[in-house]
Amino acid sequence: MPVDKSKCISCGACVSICPVNAIRFGEDGKAEIDETKCIRCGSCEATCPVNAIKINY
Predict the structure, then answer these.
(1) Number of domains in the chain
(2) C-beta separation of 2 from 55 below 8 A
(3) Which keywords does the record carry (predicted)?
(4) Which helix (H) or strand (E) holds 15?
(5) I want to staple 38 with a disulfide (CB 3.0 to 4.6 A). Which of 15, 22, 50, 57 is the partner?
(6) Angle at Cα 16 formed by Cα 32 and Cα 30, nearest 5°?
(7) CA angle 17, 29, 44 (to 5 degrees)
(8) Which domain does 23 fall in, by range?
(9) Span 3-34, pLDDT tens digits
(10) 3-class SS letters over 4-26
(11) pTM for the full model?
């Protein structure tokens, strides 16, 4: 999974910037990426203030 939940601060930056709405908050309040929707554009990785997202290209 590309989100390191131990780093995620649930700020919502990734949710807001995702152009295909592939990111949502899970039951634990942390970001989750639906990899079937993700187009690997890197926007979420670039906007995350705590570097919790690493996209495998």
Answers:
(1) 1
(2) yes
(3) 4Fe-4S, Iron, Iron-sulfur, Metal-binding
(4) helix 13-17
(5) 22
(6) 30
(7) 20
(8) 1-57
(9) 999 999 999 999 999 999 999 999 999 999 99
(10) CCCCCCCCCHHHHHCCCCCEEEC
(11) 0.90
User: Rounded distance, CA 45 to CA 14, Å?
Assistant: 8
Amino acid symbol at 45: E
Token representation of residue 50 = 């705590």
Q: What's at 24, amino acid-wise?
A: R
pLDDT of the residue at 1: 59
Which CATH number fits the domain that encloses residue 15? Answer: 3.30.70.20
Q: How many whole angstroms separate alpha carbon 16 and alpha carbon 7?
A: 18
- Write the burial class of residue 3 (CB in 10 Å: 0-12 exposed, 13-18 middle, 19+ buried): buried
